[in-house]
Write a sequence for this structure.
């Protein structure tokens, strides 16, 4: 980060903290629209859902052109420089995770690159018996559960997709992102109302909690649940008895074989692993390197932002520091920078350090557990086939994301087939898989367990058929 970025961050931090302390949430202080629980934020979950239901009933009759305009309104509201800075700083300040530089990239990508109504093609079938069309139609009120790790990013991409599809949405966020969610929901409602949309197309509660999320999942007016988070919440959503989209945990491996451009692979892996301090579910969590290039790869990584720990005791102390009694990640260290973690170990590392690197045994918990920290174990394999097999084991059946650095098309194809991951990235950092430096749309709700994959407007739709018998076939 250069000086001006730092200064900008300092100023915005102050603005954000003033906003939070004054209870202001993005709308002009004292304006009528901000008064008591308005602009989409409600004290009770029941009220938030009922308001979203009322809004959706009205929204159903808005022309598609208006829907497209409202989607554009969301894009414009978020990409406004002040708003973008506020949500990015607030995301880091409130959750204590990630970094502002990458939050800016993620929030912008979600706003600019999540598909709108163009994602909803009409299928038509005509013949002697008439004309039949199938359209992507709204579910109604969607309950969207959002994670602490991508708090605003998920709200942005889901709001765009869900509203484009004609739904309204109630967000039940992680309590660690309560202020940010309130601020963003109020901003979006304010802008949507100004653009002529029904009030409360996007709602949330003032004090989110696990109990309120459960209340939302069980509420009869909520027609679809979209759960973005760890395995616990995905399982709960899938047990709700409603249509549910589950976007769950990952533990993405990156395989590097002897045909790869080793220096580029090293740079890409460090870049993907350190993106937002390793918070994204798609980010590189371990590397499997073919033995004959492993030393070269490690050297290039250390020359490009990785800090190598060789000493076994230091690695074990790092595990003790960053893990909890259940063998999972310690919350205080999730989404923290490599420098922060090393500092807590009493290790002084160069300022440009982005990733903590080590060689590890294939059964080491750093390899097997989704830590969401820029800590990167490298496991050696005797050849590319063994590397692919190990990657499959490390991915742990999540079928989420995997990467391969290779020029061998046959092995790239083999790995892509065997891994069965929703996202498979070749010769690039993981984030290329969500449209950042790679072709394709962006989402922060990647639905492996339920199969929608890179979710977009059509994922939040019911397909409905409309039939005209005998007529309107004009050939
Ligand atoms: P989390 O599972 O702790 O929380 C996610 C959401 O579920 C939060 O809103 C939380 O309040 C709620 N929740 C959790 N347990 C609940 C329960 N028992 N009852 C009701 N609500 C509950 O996850 P997190 O720490 O916020 O996010 C990190 C996890 O999410 C990682 O495992 C990561 O891989 C995953 N994730 C997946 C995707 C994806 O698109 N597949 C995207 C982001 C994060």
């Amino acid at each position: 980060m250069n000086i001006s970025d730092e200064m900008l961050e300092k100023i915005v931090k102050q603005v954000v903290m003033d906003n939070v302390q004054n209870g202001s949430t993005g709308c002009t202080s004292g304006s009528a629209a901000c008064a008591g629980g308005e602009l989409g934020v409600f004290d009770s979950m029941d009220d938030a859902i009922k308001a979203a239901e009322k809004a959706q009933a009205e929204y159903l009759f808005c022309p598609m052109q208006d829907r497209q305009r409202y989607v554009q309104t969301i894009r414009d509201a978020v990409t406004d420089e002040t708003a973008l800075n506020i949500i990015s700083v607030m995301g880091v300040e409130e959750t204590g995770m990630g970094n502002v530089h990458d939050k800016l990239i993620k929030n912008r990508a979600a706003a600019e690159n999540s598909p709108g109504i163009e994602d909803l093609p009409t299928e038509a079938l005509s013949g002697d018996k008439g004309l039949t069309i199938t359209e992507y139609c709204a579910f109604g009120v969607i309950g969207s559960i959002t994670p602490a790790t991508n708090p605003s990013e998920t709200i942005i991409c889901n709001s765009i997709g869900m509203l484009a599809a004609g739904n309204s949405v109630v967000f039940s966020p992680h309590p660690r992102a309560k202020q940010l969610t309130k601020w963003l929901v109020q901003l979006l409602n304010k802008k949507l109302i100004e653009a002529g949309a029904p009030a409360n197309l996007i709602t949330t509660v003032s004090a989110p909690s696990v109990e309120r999320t459960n209340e939302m999942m069980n509420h009869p007016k909520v027609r679809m649940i979209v759960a973005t988070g760890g395995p616990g919440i995905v399982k709960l959503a899938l047990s709700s008895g409603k249509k549910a989209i589950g976007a769950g945990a990952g533990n993405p491996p990156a395989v590097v074989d002897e045909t790869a451009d080793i220096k580029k692979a090293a740079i890409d892996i460090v870049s993907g692993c350190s993106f937002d301090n390793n918070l994204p579910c798609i980010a590189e969590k371990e590397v499997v390197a073919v033995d004959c290039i492993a030393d070269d790869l490690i050297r290039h990584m250390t020359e490009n932002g990785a800090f190598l720990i060789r000493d076994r005791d230091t690695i074990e102390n790092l595990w003790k520091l960053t893990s909890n009694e259940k063998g999972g990640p310690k919350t205080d260290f999730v989404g923290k920078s490599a420098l922060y973690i090393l500092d807590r170990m009493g290790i002084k590392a160069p300022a440009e350090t982005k990733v903590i690197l080590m060689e590890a045994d294939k059964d080491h918990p750093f390899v097997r557990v989704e830590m969401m920290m820029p800590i990167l174990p490298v496991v050696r394999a005797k050849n590319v086939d063994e590397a692919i097999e190990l990657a499959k084991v490390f991915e742990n059946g999540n079928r989420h994301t995997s990467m391969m650095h290779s020029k061998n098309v046959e092995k790239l194809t083999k790995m892509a087939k065997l891994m069965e991951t929703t996202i498979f990235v070749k010769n690039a950092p993981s984030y290329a898989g969500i449209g950042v430096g790679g072709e394709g749309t962006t989402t922060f709700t990647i639905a492996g367990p339920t199969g929608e994959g890179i979710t977009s407007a059509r994922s939040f739709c019911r397909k409905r058929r409309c039939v005209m018998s005998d007529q309107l076939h004009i050939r």
In short: The CA atoms of residues 127 and 475 lie 8 Å apart. The pocket of nicotinamide-adenine-dinucleotide is lined by residues 145-150, 173-174, 210, 213-214, 228-230, 232-233, 236, 247-250, 281, 370, 444-446 (CB under 6 Å). The longest strand covers residues 130-138.
